[in-house]
Specification:
By secondary structure, the protein is of the alpha/beta class. The chain has 3 domains: about 60 residues, OB fold (Dihydrolipoamide Acetyltransferase, E2P) (Beta Barrel); about 160 residues, P-loop containing nucleotide triphosphate hydrolases (Rossmann fold); about 55 residues. The protein has 11 helices and 13 strands. The strands form 3 sheets. It has a 6-stranded mixed beta sheet. Strand 8, helix 5 and strand 9 form a beta-alpha-beta unit. The longest helix has 16 residues. It is globular. The chain starts with a helix and ends in a 6-residue tail after the last helix. The protein binds guanosine-5'-triphosphate and zinc ion (ZN). Guanosine-5'-triphosphate binds next to helix 8.
Length: about 325
């Protein structure tokens, strides 16, 4: 794109004509718009937290402004607000700018919603929460979540819960060749190690019902829910009435940068149909090197006779096997 900048940039070839008109008429600059981050979305109403200034962290309810058109705004989006940004009851600010997204996490189309959608923007870590027992861990599901993380450009973290019920060794052995970072935890345990992993990052928590996600979120953000009736402090809504993602700032941290978590009660599966093998292998530099001489169009999957990955031996062969298992999980319907 950079090489063709001059040719295609209207600013450069239309300059003589445009100079006759005041620039601000063409494109408002929104100089006085206030930066904020979207923490939850509920039927067209977006709850934002201000990012800067003396009121940083305060909550403002907003709606999309007309110039954004049909562009979706999702949890994690960095936005700019105009209008009443006081956050007072009954006020509604307008979102006039959505910053370019660094990452996007998508969920697949399903029976209730035929469209594949971006659910979280700008998160950099995907925390795959799985119970060691009750319910039994489902490696296929973990594999699919890993593929979604690598494809979205997010770092995965395996978070194994209920360590009072079963030993993590067998499950960890499955993910060792891939070098997936992990934490093991249980209800009531010190969550210091989990906190360290979350510090300074925006982490999306995924995991199916019953794995202990709420228990973990409550341990990490003690005031996220009031004990009576599970009403969320940020939205004022009951958690269980909502299937929307919710982003919460983590408390504390000596540098004030403890990170954010995004709880996603709604995700049942990820959109993996579009995942390109070359993008996935990019997350594994050593394997990517092996594919340098692959024939054109090689999928690097099982049964590719001339794939460079077939040359791997020893530990690397184990990594290749695990990588190919992930690749194959794209087509799995197990979720
Ligand atoms: N034995 C044991 N049980 C746990 C642990 N953590 C959570 N539980 C129990 O597991 C059940 C599910 O925990 P939740 O935290 O509600 O799980 P969740 O993933 O949020 O489930 P949903 O709310 O259905 O999405 C509850 O009965 C918890 O008390 C743990 O470390 N050990
Ligand atoms: Zn190949």
């Amino acid at each position: 794109m950079t090489g063709r900048y001059d040719e295609h940039d209207p600013e450069s070839y239309e300059r003589p004509r445009r100079r006759t008109r005041p620039r601000t008429k063409d494109r408002p600059t929104y100089d006085d718009a206030v930066p904020a981050v979207v923490v939850t979305v509920d039927r067209g109403r977006l709850t934002c937290l201000l990012s800067e200034g003396p009121d940083a962290g305060s909550k403002v309810l907003a709606m999309k402004a007309r110039p954004l058109g049909r562009k979706g705004v999702v949890v994690g989006d960095r936005v700019r607000l105009v209008g009443d940004v006081s956050g007072d009851d009954g006020t509604l600010a307008r979102i006039v700018v959505v910053d370019e997204r660094v990452t996007t996490l998508r969920r697949t189309a399903d029976d209730t919603d035929p469209v594949e959608r971006v659910i979280v923007a700008n998160a950099d870590q995907l925390v795959i929460v799985a119970a060691l027992a009750d319910p039994e861990p489902r490696p296929r599901l973990i594999d699919r979540a890993l593929v979604a993380a690598y494809d979205a450009g997010m770092d995965p973290l395996l978070c194994l819960t209920k360590s009072d019920l079963a030993d993590p060794a067998d499950l960890l052995a499955v993910y060792r060749p891939l070098g997936v970072p992990y934490v093991v935890t249980r209800r009531g345990a010190d969550v210091g190690e989990v906190r360290e992993r979350l510090a300074g990052r925006t982490s999306v928590l995924v995991g199916h019902s019953g794995v202990g996600k709420s228990t973990l979120v409550n341990a990490l953000v003690p005031d996220a829910m009031r004990s009576t009736g599970d009403v969320n402090a940020v939205t004022g809504r009951g958690r269980h009435t909502s299937t929307n993602a919710l982003m919460l700032p983590l408390p504390g941290g000596p540098d004030g940068n403890a990170g954010w978590i995004v709880d996603t009660p709604g995700i049942r599966s990820f959109g993996l149909a579009h995942v390109d093998p070359d993008r996935l292998i990019h997350a594994f530099g050593d394997l990517e090197e092996l594919t340098a001489d692959c024939p054109r169009g090689c999928t690097h999957g099982y049964g590719e006779p001339e794939c460079g990955l077939n040359e791997a031996t020893g530990d690397e062969a184990e990594r290749v096997e695990s990588f190919r298992r992930l690749l194959a999980s794209r087509d799995s319907t197990d979720y």
